[in-house]
Design goal:
Largest sheet: 9 strands, antiparallel
Strand content: over 45%
Number of strands: 9
Number of helices: 2
Radius of gyration: 37 Å
Distance between the termini: 95 Å
Mean pLDDT: 78
CATH topology of the largest domain: Porin
Number of domains: 2
Order of helices and strands: HHEEEEEEEEE
Shape: elongated
Helix content: 10-25%
CATH architecture of the largest domain: Beta Barrel
């Protein structure tokens, strides 16, 4: 019992008991870990952990918002105005001249959206051997586009879907209805801020936009209209 190892154990035990007494006198309300060899172990308060977590969350939010702001400035500053003309036909056998205007905004390199207005004025009959009804149309739609690059950003298609409303005018009758649209428009870059717009395959596919509306007239329960031989420009503003 008087070996050096036993004496060393007794000294460690006495020092541990003394430290325990000092710890209890200084920190009476804190728990004590018996395996700490006499040294006090203090846990971080929960309120401090919550504060650290909140600070980290704020810093992470500021960092991600800065990155997203940099991305948005790189991809969302492209605003365009598109102006087109051409011709229009519908299922009332009405043939007209069209004027198309749209404001577009890119929010990614591939995706964009826009608000478009199209007006057509009746010019004549599309087919002479079919019953016709002179029709003038107005379309106001919200459109979403996906870009398909054919030659980087020099030549590409804008493939879009739209939803809005139309007005059809027959002589003295006005009708309004919900309208959807689908479009594929060819864009050819002429300069840094100007693009030429046409139908997807120019003359081989002369239609770039189709409208379907719930407007009914006589035997036609729906209204269908198509933009044919479109051409125009798209200008960055």
């Amino acid at each position: 019992m008087n070996s050096p190892r036993a004496k060393k154990y007794r000294r460690v035990k006495i020092i541990g008991n003394a430290n325990n007494a000092i710890y209890k006198s200084r920190y009476p309300s804190l728990p004590r870990n018996s395996s700490s060899m006499g040294f006090p172990t203090r846990s971080i308060p929960e309120s401090r952990l919550i504060g650290i977590a909140v600070c980290l969350f704020i810093l992470l939010g500021l960092f991600t918002s800065r990155i997203s702001a940099q991305d948005s400035t790189a991809t969302t500053e492209n605003h365009f105005i598109a102006i087109q003309t051409g011709f229009s036909i519908d299922n009332n056998n009405s043939f007209g001249v069209r004027l198309y205007l749209e404001f577009q905004k890119e929010w990614t390199p591939r995706w964009s959206y826009g608000v478009s207005f199209e007006g057509t004025a009746h010019f004549g009959e599309f087919a002479t051997d079919t019953r016709s009804m002179p029709t003038s149309l107005n379309h106001l739609l919200f459109n979403v586009y996906y870009r398909v690059n054919l030659n980087k950003d020099k030549i590409y298609w804008d493939c879009g879907l739209g939803l809005g409303g139309s007005r059809a005018f027959w002589s003295v009758n006005n009708k309004f209805g919900l309208t959807s649209s689908a479009s594929i428009t060819l864009n050819i870059r002429l300069g840094p801020n100007v693009l030429l717009q046409a139908s997807p395959l120019v003359i081989l596919a002369p239609v770039n936009r189709a409208y379907a509306s719930k407007i009914s007239m006589n035997e036609n329960s729906r209204l269908w209209a198509f933009a044919i031989l479109p051409f125009g420009v798209k200008i960055r503003v």
